[in-house]
Amino acid sequence: MEQNRTVAVLGATGYIGGRLVAALLERGWNVRAVGRNPEKLRCRPFAAHPNVELVQADALDQPALTDALRGCHAAYYLVHSMYPGVKNFEDRDKRAAMIMRDAAREAGLERILYLGGLGDTDKDLSEHLKSRMEVGEILGSGPVPLTWLRAAMIIGSGSASFEILRYLVDRLPLMITPAWVKSLCQPIAVTNVLEYLVGCLEHPETSGRTMDIGGPDILSYRDLFDIYARVAGLRPRIIIPVPVLTPRLSSYWIQMVTPVPSSLSRPLAEGLRNKVVCRENSIRELVPTRLLGCEEAITRALDRTVRHEVETCWSDAGLQRVPEWIDCGDAPYAGGTVLESAHTLTLAATPAQVWNVIVRLGGDEGWLHGNWMWKIRGVADKLIGGPGLRRGRRDPEELRVGDALDFWRVLVVEENRRLRLLAEMKLPGEALLQFDIDEEDPGRTRLTLRARFLPRGLWGMIYWYPLIPVHGPLFRGMLTALARKIGGKILFGPVTPPKEGSQCRL
Predict the structure, then answer these.
(1) Which residues contact 141 (CB under 8 A, 6 or more apart)?
(2) For 331-343, what is each residue's pLDDT tens digit?
(3) How far apart are CA 191 and CA 290, in angstroms?
(4) Residues of the domain holding 399
(5) Per the domain annotation, does 193 fall within a domain?
(6) Residue 410 belongs to a domain
(7) Where do transmembrane segments lie in this chain (predicted)?
(8) Nearest CA-CA partner of 419 in 389, 447, 390, 386
(9) What one-character DSSP code corresponds to residue 303?
(10) What is the predicted pLDDT for the residue at 277?
(11) Within-domain flag for 445
(12) Number of domains in the chain
């Protein structure tokens, strides 16, 4: 079996790279995760896996890259330079591809696998798609065989193209669009992209081949807007095509409406004019898999339907899907704008003493402060079809992942360190409540309470902001009441902590 050999993933902290590492590990491969930033590598969920090796290397540093590839059977090349602060990304990508081609030869790689963009080479391609084509041609010009997969729009929470779609439809009930709204594309679910990437590694006959990958549906971008609105539970959007509005001009309002950085949104917007449809489907025979239709892929990306099906089923609680937007390492714009209310205090207690009180919250114990507010919210939730507060908790002293806790679902239980709860109340978005415990010194512990909310549409934004004056007193009061229940003197706080960086959302 080749799985006992090592495969390198360049760009392991990226959207596809991070998910690919996890998929390869699940299939039994030894993985060398390569990235420029060691902190981001250590932040990824796969970092502690016994079969993964974290290696720092820059794609523009040939000696370091060659060393990173030595001893590997194959390498995935998932690198691009479209990020803030970089000008002429095309030139950087060309240089990086040349370095990769030469490093692969020197390191003795047997294969390179590359995921690029889909587009008709006979037409006037955007700079982004043209660059993706050039990278593939450079990688394939060396002696190491290249497997080149060409994809159009990837549907998954965190994909830049999908996030642009999400923000536009969520925030704009009426859109004035250029002619590209009628352009055809063949989106593919991120699940299928990962299956193809892993499948090509495990099917040697794909070596040296260039193959288009796409889902079963060929749609216009207008069709995508309609499908997204329907799946997200939004009213149909009014779309008015205007021929004089060019893709470049549209990139400016995309930049204003979405938080996707212009270094990404502008090249992607200019590429919308290109028809991106598979010209051949040979991979479907070489790597058979069930392709997800566009509607199913969007449903999975929004990550609501499956989770709601199990919200009151105790025996199936383990089937719960963790929202993709909390994935550590995703880009800051991934999954939507995450709004946060956070408060922290330091008290004279051990982490175990703090944990023993936090793990008993909810149910008959209540939430220690503002219980009347929690009860009003529970009654309101019940009236509109939510679970309300009466579910209580399974056990008064123990919490397990998947447990119902009033109108929350337990996502993470890390004893003496972290409790993370997912809201199952009726909301115009998704909400998390998290307790973090950090020991500063023996007998001195910092307790942080974070509420995070991913709004859906304008109603989600309207819902959140009026609650800000309520959240502050409520959460500060909860922390003070927790300290009193713990019996530890408050040494500092409660205060609002500095915002976390974008590498790890939670």
Answers:
(1) 101
(2) 555 556 788 899 9
(3) 10
(4) 319-495
(5) no
(6) yes
(7) none
(8) 447
(9) T
(10) 92
(11) yes
(12) 1
The SS3 call for residue 453 is strand
**CB 392, CB 375: distance < 8 Å:** no
Q: Please check the confidence at residue 467 and state whether its pLDDT lies above 50.
A: yes
Biggest CA pair distance of the chain: 73
Amino acid at 311: E
Q: For residue 368, what is the domain's CATH number?
A: 3.30.530.20
Q: What is the reported pLDDT for 259?
A: 63
> Do 321 and 409 form a contact (C-beta atoms < 8 A)?
no
Q: Is 106 exposed, middle or buried (0-12, 13-18, 19+ CB in 10 A)?
A: middle
316: which residues sit within 8 A by CB, 6+ positions away? Answer: 310
CB distance 8 to 30 below 8 Å: no
SS3 338: coil
* Distance of alpha carbon 63 from the chain centroid: 32
Tell me how far apart the alpha carbons of residues 237 and 102 are, in angstroms, rounded to a whole number: 49
Contact between 93 and 134 under an 8 Å Cβ cutoff? The reply is: yes
The region, left, alpha or beta by phi > 0 then psi within -120 to 50, assigned to residue 336 is: left
Residues 226 and 194: their CA atoms lie apart, in Å, by 26
Residue 475 covered by a domain:
yes
- Say if residue 315's pLDDT is above 50: no
- How many Cβ atoms sit within 10 Å of the Cβ of residue 285? 7
Q: Determine the residue type at 167.
A: Y
Residue 308 near residue 317 (C-beta atoms within 8 A) = no
Residue 119 · residue 85 · CB < 8 Å: no
Q: Is 330 helix (H, G, I), strand (E, B) or coil?
A: coil
